[in-house]
Amino acid sequence: MNISETACRSILTRTTGYLKTVCSHSMNPYTGCGLGRSACGVACYVRFNPWLTRGREWGGFVDVKINAPDVYLQTAEVERRWARRRAQPFSIFLASSTEPWQPLEKKYRVTRGLLDAMHSAPPDEVILQTHTTGIRDDLDRVQALSRKCRLRVQVSIEGDVERLPGMPPPPAALDDRIQLLRELSEAGIDTVACLAPLYPITDAHAFFERLSKTGIVAVVIDHFIEGDGTADGARTLKTALPAAMQAVNPDSLHVAYRDTLAAIAKQYLPVGVSAAGFAGRYDSVIHVAP
């Protein structure tokens, strides 16, 4: 792993494309990702972004933005005004192209510094997206920030199987991530399970019932088709994920599978689909008569 400490000139990126309807800004404390060789990293569409990788192998490098908290404090008000001129809330997605609580966070604490910076200069809304359980280290800070702005934590839980055939293991065990949902909910934090990208699910009713018992406020379901920023899932089709999904359930390769699973999930939890779900827009639970 090639680790570089870098000084960034900006940390708040005005959103375009997929995230434009989700939030006004994204914020990434690291460039690259220490989870790049785990299941989420192998299937990550960001690995094909030449502006980020600059010819480097995804999972083989991390650039640590050591001054990110200071840069946030220097630029937050300018970016808040920019969002409001467009009649948008100042809404931050942390993070869109890296894992905020990747292993290096224990050493550098850039994400922790950003949480503290946002507490000092809070946005209108912050969405914390994670594939790991490292957020436990900052639970008190997340709670404190949730009292200053709208906040939700979105935990990636792609399906009900621990590992797809031919894929590396996930960065955190499935049971541990489900336990994290419960802990965050019990701490009074709005918490969402994100099936993104959606994996084949072996027992949808049992899975969504289990998620509903954790206290989460909703589930988001997003297929790699459309969900990776391309209409046909072209970015993800370059990865090992589609073959692994096909080996378990060929139907899961089609976007209609997302809609089938969403219909089942709605029997247990509010459901958001694709970008609307990431933006916090959910369909209500549909109660099915016994």
Structural account:
The chain is α/β, with parallel strands linked by helices and 290 residues long. The chain has a domain at 2-202: pyruvate-formate lyase- activating enzyme (Alpha-Beta Horseshoe). The chain is built from 12 helices and 11 strands. The protein has helices at 39-42, 50-53, 68-85, 105-108, 110-120, 139-146, 174-186, 204-212, 224-227, 241-248, 255-265, 274-278, and strands at 2-6, 12-14, 25-27, 30-32, 61-65, 91-94, 125-130, 150-156, 190-195, 218-221, 271-273. An 8-stranded mixed β-sheet has the order 2-3-6-7-8-9-10-11. A 3-stranded mixed β-sheet has the order 1-5-4, with no helix packed on it. The longest helix is centred in the N-terminal third of the chain and has 18 residues, at 68-85. It is globular. Keywords: Iron, Iron-sulfur, Metal-binding. InterPro entries: MJ0683-like (IPR040086), rSAM (IPR007197).
